[in-house]
Amino acid sequence: MKDSKTFAVLATDVAVLTIDGGVLKVLVTEARSKNFTGMLTLPGGLVGHKERTQEAAIRILKETMTKTDYYNEQLYTFDDPGRDPEGRVVTVAYMMLVPGDEAKRIIRKDASWQAVKTLPKLAYDHNEVVNVAMKRLMGKLTYTNIVYALMPLEFTLSDLQKTYETALELTLDKRNFIKKIKSLNLVHKTTHKVEGSAHRPATLYKFGERKYTRVDLF
């Protein structure tokens, strides 16, 4: 990384988020840099000369996951001159959202899902990247339908409420939540049901369209 002593090198890092087992998690791998031995890091790497930053992010994730066509968006450019002890590296960070039922699609041996609430100190400035991703997700959950990116194809309204509560770190009134969701016409009943342990079978719903749009939710 000789050039990084004089000129900045462009990289990309991705905060891949999911809600699995009622816990908000982020995908991490073992840091390969000798400066961060024994630490965890977000998936990331350098951007190729002929790549857009998003293309580089997807390429890097393909080394970690069997599927990468999930919702993703550019987060922020992290350019603190001291963020990488090996040289001057500017990173364009992305956020990707993965449904909980697809969280097992990781193939890299040193990759794992870590609970955001108990996340240890990560390499570089990656804790800050995760914090920015969290704030972005929490904000967009209140005025868009982005929650679809965290949900399986079919789900109960209770599952949907729990996803909101987990990501937003709050408790919602069940009756008001269901009323609001139905009034927005975001989800539609399917003919399928799921057996409950103590209650009658719950109806499964699906999104009318799994496409990002603004909604007046909260």
TrEMBL record:
Which superkingdom is the protein from? Bacteria
Against Gene3D superfamilies, the record matches this protein to: Nucleoside Triphosphate Pyrophosphohydrolase, Winged helix-like DNA-binding domain superfamily/Winged helix DNA-binding domain
* MF terms in GO: hydrolase activity
Q: Where is the NrtR DNA-binding winged helix domain?
A: 148-207
Coiled-coil ranges per UniProt: none
Tell me the Pfam families matching this sequence. NUDIX, WHD_NrtR
Instruction: Check the record and name the CDD domains matching this protein.
Output: NUDIX_NadM_like
Q: Does the keyword Hydrolase apply?
A: yes
Q: Which residues form the Nudix hydrolase domain?
A: 13-119
**Which InterPro entries does the record match to this protein?**
NUDIX_hydrolase-like_dom_sf, NUDIX_hydrolase_dom, WH-like_DNA-bd_sf, WH_DNA-bd_sf, WHD_NrtR
Write the record's keywords in alphabetical order, separated by commas: Hydrolase
By what name is this protein known? NUDIX hydrolase
Protein's organism: Candidatus Woesebacteria bacterium GW2011_GWA2_40_7
